[in-house]
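Render this sequence as a predicted structure.
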Amino acid sequence: HFQFVHRNEVYLYLENNNLGLHYDKALNYGLEALKLCEDMNNAQMALRCNKNLSMVYLAEYKYKDALEHAYRALSISETLEKDIMKAERYLQIRRCIEGNNQHIEAFRNYLNAKKLAEKKDNKVTLINSYSQLSSFFKNNKMYEKANFYKLKEVDLIKNIEPVDSLSLNWAMYDLQVIMVNCQILQMPIAMV
């Protein structure tokens, strides 16, 4: 009983705290939780622990360690045959890889995530994929593609009931940033 209660506290701690401020504590809790999950052969929670540990390492810019746990989470999601979790892991792997300036490999992971989200028609993961693809293109100064994916994201957000107005406002803000960058470069761009 103690292990179960303690394990739940560890998960809640990792998922609800500012990892940058409490790195050592989050890392220790995460590694302890992962060990408990592996000892109990709980693949679902081991996936979650590896995902969280990857986030902890990313918060400290430790891309190699973050990537290791992201790949472990991807492997578990493949074993569990959870395509949406797999898509989310591709997006997480992308963050680790892009942090090491491996943009082509990061782009491949974006596309893998988008493909799985489209296959499962999972709008939340698809919105996340479009958002991250738009950011990728914006950061690489490919504003037409950034605009294309941001418009797809905005369209999906608008078509989910009830509309998430906060997400919509942030997406519209990002769209304006893209348009301003295009105006600075005097590029024509499609509007909403």
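Summary. The mean pLDDT is 85. The radius of gyration is 18 Å.
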